[in-house]
Amino acid sequence: MSALALAVSAASSAQAQQAVPAAPSSPDRPSADDQSDQGEVVVTGVVQKTRKLDTTFTVDTLDQADIQRLAPLSTADLLNNIPGFFAEGSTAGERSNNVTVRGLPSSGYRYAPQLIDGLPVYQDSDVPFANNDVFFSNDLMTDRVEVVKGGPGGILYSNGLGAIVNYVTKTGGDRFEGGYKLELATYGFVRNDVFVSGPINDNLHFAVGGFFRTSDGLRDVGYTADKGGQIRGNLTYSSTDGKTNFGLYASRLDDRNAVYNNLPIEVPGFTVPGTPENPIRIDSDTVKPIGINFQDGSLLSKPNRYVTQIDNDGNVTRADLADGIRPKFTTITGKFSKELDSGWRFDFDANYTKGSSGFNALFAGNDAAPASTFLANRFIGDVLQPAFDANFQVAENTPNNAPFYNRNILATYFNGLSGADFNRLYRQPLLDAGFSNFEQLRAQYGANQTIGGPGGYIGAFNVSDGQPIAANSNLSFQIPWIVKSKLMSATQNLKIQKDISLWGDHHLTFGVYHSNNKDDYDFQQSLTITTLAEPSELVDLYIIDRNGNKVGQSLSLNGSYLPGFAGNAAKGKAENFAGFVQDHWELFDRRLRIDAGFRWETEQLNVAFRNRVCCTSFLPGGAATGNRAYTQVQTLGPAQYLDERYSGHGWSVGANYALKRNLAVYALASQSFRLPSFNDGVAFAQSAPLADPVEHIDQYEGGVRFQSRWFDASATGFYNKFTPRTLINIYQDINAPVCTAGGTVATTATITSCPNVFQPYSLGTTNYGAELEVMLRPQFVPGFDIKANVVLQNPRVNGSSYTIVNQVGNSYQYATVSQDGRREGRQATVTLNIQPRWDLKPLTGLPVKLFGQYEYRSERYSNSQDQNVTLYPSYYIVNAGALIDITRKLSIQFHVANLTNQLSFTEGDPLFFDLKAPNGIGNRGVARPLFGRTGRMAINFRF
After folding, report:
1. pTM score above 0.85
2. CB distance 255 to 902 below 8 Å
3. Which residue stretches of 495-591 are H helix?
4. Which residues neighbour 68 within 8 Å (Cβ) at sequence distance 6 or greater?
5. Of the residues 95, 479, 603, 825, which has the fewest C-beta atoms closer than 10 A?
6. Cα–Cα distance, 720 to 153 (Å, whole number)
7. Among residues of the chain, what percentage have pLDDT more than 70?
8. Interatomic CA distance for residues 545 and 686, integer angstroms
């Protein structure tokens, strides 16, 4: 990691606001004249520019000054500041994080699609291995962010079931301006941002900007973790009378970002599984790392950067984990609006995105163990048993004690050893040690450590230098994911608007929407073995003799124990058509505003999916025998197809009543939907759902808003009921006549003949809660204000029950698994975000602004299940910063994230009572910790 860092920013809040070029002709953004002390103007979720105070739904905003002050590490980190959002995966790095909203399940950005200027960055917000934050980056060209939760978000936009996040792009104004920002940070981060905008003539304006960034990474990976950038620009035209407007936008993103996943953890030992009534509670003060430190350590390293795999055709390939998230996308957008003298208005927007993305990530296996234990398990389970099955017992003409092994494949462990060599090196020493058969060896091996090395007849050697690993090393399996995707999305949205008077004023909007998107990806998994140390080393396994010398070829392939472990490939496309209508109705001298809308959408989804099936032997050069790594390779099987049409509809009705100019109450009821994603199509191709594949949510909310010179407040109560797409549970009918004997339930002898039962279940949720936002500007402390929000919620699971079959002795019985009535996994019930700010100039004359932030998340369950229920601890983060105006155009900003170096976890797997830590005392698991303390400094110049 590098030493301290210099860090960011844009000038002061006032300067940042002045730097936002007003596009008076653009229908998609408010002009400066629309701003007032009675509330900012929003353009998302509405059919005409509206004061935030007057909206009939919940909308939150972050302007460029807010973004500068918060100094977010990623898009997800930015959204963490929106009440009701939890970006649990903001600890994953700059991209491909998970975002939840108001208690909905965690699933990338599935329920919170990202828009740019009202159009989706990609039509499907649930793309396999390419979350919505992969397609774009925030930079100085982002003017503001507007977030709509529920209500009209599901009417005016596609997939708006939970929330809509809209990034409004900066366009050129009537004066020439620009800016440059140099940002540096303590982790080798260097970023350059620039933008320029202004008039070409009275009617034509331009804006262009972008960034380029390199970084050693928020965690120490031993190489350049992040490298790349983005350039984007636009031309906007407005006629003199303002009735004709046109905009052409283009962007190019070419970037690379590291992916940080779970790390191995140790907790104090426990001996019984966690239950809903008595879960395993993790205490941050007692959690210990296993080999990798929590603050800035990573399983990624220079020695394990390259992963050896076997591709679909049996060729040995090498993948680079340094590629991480690898987006390369070009997006072109056109916007046109025309207002006729008759009062009719036409708005047509379209965008086209095409490119590729990669997802090269390393997921931690929950297998941490001392080398002696790890290798002994490999020796017994993966060497001795196959050896006896395929050679020793066959030679002795004894019964096969392990019928589930495939002799033809596993005999290749020994790489063509002659019978004499096998007898000399393996069979005879074991017989001499008193073991006459495999069952005896398996039963007694734990008490006999005299044969071979510390792991028996198997040893581990660093791939980098071929040397034996240290005797005190810990080893674990890791799972690399290597994905290549080709993606295309095109959307078109037409709105026709007309104002009429009928018992008040109506602003009617009729719209049609069309989109096409395509996805073609290849996903490969391998299984590697590494040391748990810094840096983490890939290791190869060898059979060794009594003296620790290698015998034969490696049992692994450059550290890949199973280089063709698993994966799949899919290709598909979707075409969507939608129609919608929205009425904005104003009555009683505009004191009462009502928004009512309806959307209907249909989708044609086509998917061809190929899963990997076991097993194929790919032996180099046509050899008859070879390394074990070549023998259990999963390759693509036949394609499974989906070609279906889905349809859904939703509605929304909301009202806002102004009690005073600065005081309003509002209420909203809505029913939104989400049509199946490409991810769903992959699942449906394998097992078509038995019930509704369309997701639904019923939402109700109401609240009060108040704004004044010294105090702003918004209080909202909400309730939602989420019904997901149908899931399918498959279990065996143990009472079927074909698999029962004498009327009893199936036995171990008959279970394989039991037919499958396909059981639908939903895993839905209900949630009720409250969101409170306040802004205090005490007059007795000039320049000081404090902004805070608190969210209370209670998300509960329903409809989750399904049946499983458990073995009891030599027979089987049914059991029910259910999470109903329990809190949704990974969801906090309390979140708090407090942001004090103090401009010292009014009081002291110093051109300095101080910022602070306190963020709190209450305890959260891991993914819920009936056993091993695990509760991750609450945590807080403190951030602090200062901005100094050197001149009117030049400023410098300092920012420290996680000031107290707080340790906790944003997510993690359940803990199992029977998985012991390497020390044999504690228990082990995997979880994703917060980033440690980081510092930034930025120099910003505007002209």
Report:
1. yes
2. no
3. none
4. 8, 9, 10, 16, 883, 893
5. 479
6. 15
7. 83
8. 47
Buried b (16+ CB within 10 A) or exposed e, 906-927: bbbbbbbeeebbbeeebbbbbb
pLDDT at res. 760: 83
Q: What is the structure's pLDDT at 18?
A: 30
pLDDT-derived band at 893 (thresholds 50, 70, 90) equals very high
Q: Which two tokens stand for residue 781?
A: 């402390």
What pLDDT sits at residue 858?
Answer: 95
Kindly state the tokens that stand for 314: 């049996």
Rounded-to-integer distance, Cα 879 and Cα 751, Å:
58
Question: Each residue of 353-396: pLDDT tens digit?
Answer: 999 999 999 999 999 999 988 887 776 666 555 555 444 444 44
CB 630 within 8 A of CB 310: yes
Cα–Cα distances in angstroms (integers) from residue 504 to residues 153, 501, 589, 594, 674, in the given order: 24, 6, 8, 11, 34
Number of C-beta neighbours around residue 700 at 10 A: 16
Query: What is the maximum alpha-carbon separation in the chain?
Result: 102
Cα–Cα separations (whole angstroms), residue 932 to 297, 315, 805: 10, 41, 44
- What residues pair up with 792 in beta bridges, in sequence order? 770, 830
Q: Would you state the pLDDT for residue 448?
A: 37
C-alpha to C-alpha distance for 70 and 72, rounded to whole angstroms: 6
CA distance 109 to 78: 14
User: 227-260 b/e with 16+ CB inside 10 Å = b?
Assistant: bbbbbbbbbbbbeeeeeebbbebebbbbbbbbbb
pLDDT tens-digit profile of 421-474? 555 655 565 556 555 554 555 454 443 333 334 444 678 999 999 999 988 899
Q: Tokens 């803990």: give the residue.
A: 911
Considering the chain, what is the average pLDDT of its residues?
A: 85
What is the rounded CA–CA span in Å between residue 827 and residue 283? 18
Q: How many beta carbons lie within 10 A of that of residue 188, not counting itself?
A: 18
AA letter at 395: A
Give the chain's length.
Answer: 943
Per-residue tokens: 28: 């998609």
pLDDT at residue number 654: 96
Task: Name the residue with tokens 């103007």.
Answer: 41
Is the Cβ–Cβ distance between 898 and 936 less than 8 Å? no
Collapsing DSSP to helix, strand or coil, 678 comes out as helix
Q: By C-alpha distance, which of 557, 573, 580 is closest to 633?
A: 557
Q: How many angstroms separate the CA atoms of 593 and 502, rounded?
A: 14
d(CA 737, CA 735): 6
pLDDT in tens, 247-259: 999 999 999 999 9
Give all strands (DSSP E) within 588-623, no chain letters.
592-616
Per the omega criterion (within 30 degrees of 0), is the bond before 615 cis?
yes
| Bigger pLDDT: 621 vs 112 | 112
Question: What pLDDT sits at residue 380?
Answer: 63
Distances (CA, A) of 721 to 85, 689, 923: 17, 21, 37
Place of tokens 């009014």: 842
Apex 934 CA angle, 132 and 828, nearest 5: 55
The answer to whether the beta carbons of residues 13 and 4 sit under 8 Å apart is: no
In angstroms, rounded to a whole number, what is the distance separating the alpha carbons of residues 228 and 667?
45
CA–CA separation, 450 and 12 (whole Å): 72
Q: Name residue 165's amino acid.
A: V
pLDDT tens for each residue of 281-340? 999 999 999 999 999 999 999 999 999 998 777 778 899 999 999 999 999 999 999 999
Nearest Cα to 695, choosing from 125, 175, 116?
125
Which helix (H) or strand (E) segment holds residue 680: the answer is helix 678-686
Cβ–Cβ under 8 Å, residues 527 and 479 = yes
| DSSP letter, residue 620 | G
Q: Is the distance from CB of 888 to CB of 849 less than 8 angstroms? A: no
In this structure, are strands 663-674 and 560-587 parallel, antiparallel, or unpaired? Answer: unpaired
